[in-house]
Amino acid sequence: MRSKDIVALARAACTQAQVPAARIDPIRLRDNAMLRTDTATIIRVHQRGELATAVRELRAADWLRSHHVRAPEPLVPDPVVVAERPVTFWEDLGSGGPAEAPETGAMLARLHTLRVPSHLGLPLFTLPDFTDRIDQCLTDETEKVWLRDYADNLAARWDALEWPSPWCVIHGDPSPANTMAAPTGGHVVDLERCCIGPPQWDQATVAFQSDTLSDPPARWKQFADAYGSDVTGWDGYPAIRDVRSFELCLFALRHAAVSEHARQQADYRLACLRGHRGLRPGDGLRLETSRRSLHAAVIAYIRAPTTTSGPVGAMMASR
Asked: pLDDT of 242-271, one tens digit each?
């Protein structure tokens, strides 16, 4: 959907929800589009078929806020639906960038101690089924066969994990892009993956940013100190790290047609994953990533790896 169409849809939703908006500006258009009004309101336009997810996200935000975990305030209690797409309305936290690592660690530590609520209807975490994503990859069938085998290997490793602590409510994707600094402190945002799952998944998602991507190692230490433990010392951590890496690699391969640069990056990352270029994930690789998106359609997803010492294994950046 084009930018002007998303804005028109958002404007219709504002009218339906009686949210004043003389001006609406897009923030991002990928997946669940996000827009900002001139009245300090953030509009999220969800995909078709995601009404239940949109409702759950609103309820989760209210629940988190009631338990002193900072999350954006829903401004309209229920989604409105326009052109079959659920639309939700949130307080505008500003443009302060990601929350500081210690704040994120403290928020997740608090979240993971909360009693699982029965009224939210949170789903149980499951390992993603990569079949459709692999089928959509813009690569040849030989590479897809390899990707399917790799996915099967990941699933076997996942099934063999022995979780060191009970499952609880988790954010599901607490990467820096899904946190936000605000005058009142750091917040967790984008709660559509909130579920009942292993707390190690949330921790590993943050560790992955420093272990494999470009976040400074000091940021992870600050997070781990605030959280109270370091998941990278658990022998199951590499399995979660590799699942996260694989998810993001598949995203690059599905969006390789965005530009020639995106094509080159997707091919390079797959070659690294296969061990054809540099180190594989888990072999001591560290990836530098740019802070600028390759294209508006994949902003915050695909970042260009660079190194001063030749090729290294590469996966990709956050969701």
From this structure: 999 899 899 899 999 888 988 988 888 888
Is the model's pTM score more than 0.70?
A: yes
Instruction: Domain of residue 22: give its range.
Output: 3-57+74-91
Per DSSP (E only), the strands in 227-301 are: 288-289
Total count of domains within the chain: 1
**What is the 3-class SS of 98-135, one letter each residue?**
CCCHHHHHHHHHHHHHCCCCCCCCCCECCCCCCHHHHH
Summarised one tens digit per residue, pLDDT across range 157-200 is 999 999 999 999 999 999 998 999 999 999 999 999 999 999 99
147: nearest Cα among 248, 246, 269: 246
255 within a domain of the structure (yes/no): no
- Phi/psi for 187 (5° steps) reads -125, 150
Structural contact between residues 176 and 213, judged by C-beta atoms closer than 8 angstroms? no
Distance CA 302, CA 295 (A): 8
Q: How far apart are the first and last CA of the chain?
A: 20
